[in-house]
Every structure is written in C-alpha cells, then in structure tokens.
Amino acid sequence: MSIEIQIPSVFASYANNKTAFQVKGSTVGECLHDLGKQSPGLAKLILDKNGNLGRAFDIYIDGESAYPNEMTKPVKEGDKLNIVMLIYGG
Amino acid sequence: MLTAEERERYDRQIMLYGFGEEGQEKLKKARVFIAGAGGLGSTVAIYLAAAGVGTIRIADHDTVELSNLNRQVLHWDEDTGNQKVDSAAAKLRRLNRSIKIEAIAETITEANISHLVADSDLIVDAMDNLPTRYLLNRTAIKKDIPFFHGAVYGFEGRAMTIIPGKSACLNCLYHGATVPEEKFPVIGVTPAVIGCIQAAEVIKYIVGFGELLTDRLLNFDGLKMTFTELKVRKDPNCEHCGKIQGR
Description:
The structure holds two protein chains of two kinds. Chain A is 20% helix and 26% strand. Chain A is α+β, with helices and mostly antiparallel strands. Chain A has a single domain (2-85), classed as Ubiquitin-like (UB roll) (Roll). The mean pLDDT of chain A is 95.
C-alpha cells in the first residue's frame, strides 16, 4: 500500500531536499515509522523518544485532521498525509 | 456618510461588486484590534489603514530593533529604539490621515486583555508567541469577537478565521500544544503574504461578502510556492470553545 507524505519545506534539509515521500502502512503510525526508516533525521524531529507523534505536529489525511489518536488512524492506498508543524511566529 | 474625499480615495474598492459605498461606510465605522506590531501586524495594519478601517488599535510592548527591519515594514532605520506602536502609528497616520490610530505600548496579559479589546469589532492575531495567541483566542470566544489568526516560520505561513460559536478555534487547531519558543527564522515576504490574507479576511468580514477561512487552515509554503487548504473541525471537547458549541 503506497501513501504519500508531504513534509514542510523547512524540513527538506533533513531529508536530502525531499518534501514528499512514498511510504507503506495501514495506519498513520506505520506510515510515519516507514518515513523514519527512509529518513532517520526526520523521524528524530517528528516522533518523540517513544515513537509517538511529537506535540508540535499534526497530521492531516487527505486534508482532514487526524486528531486525536493520530497514530492509530487507518489510511488507504492513495491517501495523502500532510505533516503540519505548530508555528507561532509573527 | 462618506465625504467626497473618501468617495474619491476609495473609488476602486467601492467599485467592487457587493462592496459599494455601504461597504466603505462599514469599514469606516469598524474598530479593529491588532495584537502585535511586528511582521504580520505591519502588513495587516497597512492594508486595513489603506482600505479605510475607521479605528485601528495596535498593541505591542516591544521597541524596534535593527533585526526587525527585514520583515516589519512599518518600521524603518530611523525608528530603531522607539516603541513599535509609535513607529507604526506614525506611518499609518501618514498613509491615511482620515482614520484613527490608537497605539498601545503594553504587554498583552490576562489582566489587561479585556480592556484592550473593549469596543473592538474584531481581533487580529499578529503575535509572536503561543501563550498570548491562546489568551487572545479565549478572550475572543468569551466576548464573542471574531478572531483572525496568522502565523509564520521561515518561508511557511498560515491563516485561519475564527467566528466564536460557529467555527473551529485556535485551540481546536492546536489542542493547547506549546513548543519551546526560540528566535525563529523568517523572510519578510512570508508575513507579507499571510498578513495580506488576514487583512483580506478582515475586510470581507466587515463588509459582509465573500467566503471566510472558517474551519479551514490555509497553509502557505513559499519554497514550494503552494497553498494547501486543511480542514479543521470544531472540537466539542475544546477547552476554549467546546462549552459554547452550537451557540
């Protein structure tokens, strides 16, 4: 099952200048861990030490918020995930 | 009632379908509170002043630093060391002498927020920190004042409009999350883009036309040059707005 994950451009430097990844998994969590295998630097940023989604991030599945319990939300072939970072600057 | 000078000054926007002199009069009567006179606040204030919003109250406790000038376009070289709100007010009055600018050189706190937003028709979130953004969000909901959120980081920015009792709020979006706040990277064009979107939302809300960014987070990625729209749902258990769901 192939899922696309879009990451914020600001993280491209941690991911060989890529901002989109094809990952495999049946849940958001499986997809993020597959992303982490492809790009360990990204995993350190997005996931906490227990492998859960960091508090500064939200996941959207095809434009819909996956909150709460994001990591267990199911995904299907062709879904597009957006990782959105909490930003506060003005 | 518009003066002859105002009819001439705002002629191009009065021409807009659905705007007219009635829309211009609504802008003239409007009172807008802008929280922050930095990158976002500069852009929002410039375009609201140019559009003829009758009263703009802008609050910020900071003074102008040289490192602000790459993005905070209301502040210029000669303003370094001065209060941002004084610098902002001086430019805005030169831009449009017919509107009222109220400069508040105070930190926005629990103690003064009610006073600061009193009489305001809406609140613009142009802050640089999450605790004050959440405070503004809570206050907007409590006082039933529309709230226009914007935030930036690097080449990325986002905006969302919050109508208390009707749409998802800032806390529905971020669930009370906070992050350690540090000096953040930003290029001036990002708050310019997002500030213009916030100003457009404010103008549409006041005039009463168009579709607002309610329950939608508009995310701008200037490096990819994309706008992505994400749906945000009102959280029935939200600590800020959940109790008044469906009001």
